[in-house]
Amino acid sequence: PVLILLGIAVAFAAGNLIISDLLGRKRLNSEKATAYECGMDAVGSARIRLSIHFYLVAVLFILFDVEAIFLILWATNAKAFAAAGVGPFVFAEVTAFVAVLALALAYVWRKGGLTWDR
Length: 118
What we know:
By secondary structure, the chain is mostly helical. It is about 65% helix and about 0% strand.
């Protein structure tokens, strides 16, 4: 049943793309090629290299976002852990997790990974 449903979904999507390509307008004019969001014409190529610093900040954001998810899950289940008798153990685990991430943040901060003026 799952493969049949997947096949139907793929066929429906492909059918919509083919029909819109066949029935859609194909006339290009200069008005369609103009900038519409900010009103400024594009200058240069859109394919520029981003600084490696951007990727470092992106990875750090994802890392601490995952940390926030784990902390929220722990906080919502803290009473259940206490009722099961493993509250202190889980608290120690979460404390160690936060301590390791705090050390990682301190390391990145000391190495200058959070400054933009390079």
